[in-house]
């Protein structure tokens, strides 16, 4: 009898031991202390960070694709001069910022950074994540060229107004030139 009870006690103990070993096998490994963790150093540029941590994502999420301040500026000028137009018309490639059917003219108001304005001080390649930004901005430029060619092939006169041309010092001159380009029929 002594052996029967010791056998059942042994089985019970081995069942408890196997349950405990299974619990530790499925549990997450214990966390290492900060002292023993491998530290990964984030890539940092030599330039000091302009934004606090997390602010860049918030800022980038609020960049608008339409009704930007420079687009509103151009549209309000054209409206004051008596021109009537459609805005962000999805029927045309690139959803042009201003479509003037009467003059068969389309106006794109481009930001210098996003559309890679050559020789402009407002366009500079970001120092972080260079491969991503280079590919993205080059795709933007190629897409713009294809859309402009498609519109011109369809008989539209395409005008591009750059953000840097709308600086306060040159704004009135550029807007006057834009009006003349539209009404005059295309002399750049």
From TrEMBL:
Region called Disordered, residue ranges: 1-60
Biased composition (Basic residues): 33-45
Example GO BP: mismatch repair
Keywords: DNA damage, DNA repair, Endonuclease, Hydrolase, Nuclease
Matches recorded under SUPFAM superfamilies: Restriction endonuclease-like
Compositional bias segments (type: Low complexity): 17-28
GO molecular-function terms, A-Z: endonuclease activity; hydrolase activity
Protein family membership: Belongs to the Vsr family.
Classification via NCBIfam families: vsr
Protein name: DNA mismatch endonuclease vsr
Organism annotation: Bifidobacterium imperatoris
Lineage: Bacteria, Bacillati, Actinomycetota, Actinomycetes, Bifidobacteriales
């Amino acid at each position: 009898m002594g052996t029967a009870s010791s056998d059942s006690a042994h089985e019970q103990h081995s069942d408890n031991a196997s349950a405990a070993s299974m619990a530790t096998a499925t549990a997450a490994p214990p966390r290492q202390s900060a002292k023993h963790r491998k530290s990964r150093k984030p890539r940092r540029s030599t330039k000091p960070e302009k934004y606090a941590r997390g602010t860049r994502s918030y800022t980038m999420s609020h960049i608008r694709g339409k009704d930007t301040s420079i687009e509103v500026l151009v549209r309000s000028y054209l409206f004051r001069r008596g021109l009537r137009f459609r805005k962000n018309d999805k029927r045309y490639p690139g959803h042009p910022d201003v479509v003037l059917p009467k003059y068969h003219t389309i106006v794109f108001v481009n930001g210098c950074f996003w559309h890679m304005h050559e020789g402009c001080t407002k366009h500079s390649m970001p120092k972080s994540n260079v491969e991503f930004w280079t590919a993205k901005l080059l795709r933007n430029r190629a897409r713009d060229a294809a859309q402009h060619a498609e519109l011109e092939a369809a008989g539209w006169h395409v005008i591009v107004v750059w953000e840097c041309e709308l600086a306060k010092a040159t704004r009135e001159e550029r807007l006057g030139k834009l009006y003349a380009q539209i009404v005059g029929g295309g002399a750049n």
